Amino acid sequence: MGTYDTLLLAFDKDQRADEAESLWNLILHTHSRSISKRLFSRMISLYDHHDMQDKIIDVFADMEELGVKPDEDTVQRVALAFQKLGEEEKRKLVLEKYQCRWKYIHFKGERVKVRRDVWDYNDSTN
């Protein structure tokens, strides 16, 4: 799986999204039950770099179908893809279901854990 991750990264850096997609389809059909969260995140990141929102949603759907829980960065990318596609309700559902309730901020030089919903409420009122 590490080799696949490296290959996908190389295709991303080389602007070869079509070849990455071919490799991804091969991985998905060959190793459907053992694909790591990292590989899903790599593919979503690749599609995000190439502004391919429909493909991000497809990979995320496969991720959900296989029961792989996305990391925080992937959740943000998927939510942004839904927003760019004009599907605000789906964006909210993804954030509500997968976004972590806590986040870390830096306050007076220290890293502090705060509840996300309280922090977001304060951001929206300012």
Verbal overview:
The protein is mostly helical and 126 residues long. The protein is 68% helix and 10% strand. The protein has one domain (2-99): Alpha Horseshoe (Serine Threonine Protein Phosphatase 5, Tetratricopeptide repeat), CATH 1.25.40. It has 7 helices and 2 strands; from the N terminus they run ααααααββα. Strands 1-2 form a two-stranded antiparallel sheet. α1 runs antiparallel to α2 and α3 packs antiparallel against α4 (53-65). Mean pLDDT is 87; it is low at 121-126.
**CATH hierarchy: architecture:** Alpha Horseshoe
Question: Residue share in helices?
Answer: 55-70%
Residue-averaged pLDDT, rounded? Answer: 87
Structural class: mainly alpha
Give me the number of helical elements.
Answer: 7
**Beta strand count:** 2
Order of helices and strands: HHHHHHEEH
**What percent strand?**
5-15%
The CATH superfamily is: Tetratricopeptide repeat domain
Shape summary: globular
- Main sheet: strands, sense, barrel: 2 strands, antiparallel
CATH class type = Mainly Alpha
Neighbour order of strands in the largest sheet = 1-2
The Rg value, from CA coordinates, equals 16 Å
Residue windows where pLDDT falls under 50 for at least 5 positions: 121-126
The N- and C-terminal alpha carbons lie at a distance of 45 Å
> The CATH topology is what?
Serine Threonine Protein Phosphatase 5, Tetratricopeptide repeat
State the domain count: 1
Key features?
Serine Threonine Protein Phosphatase 5, Tetratricopeptide repeat, 2 strands, 126 residues
Quick synopsis:
It contains 7 helices and 2 strands.
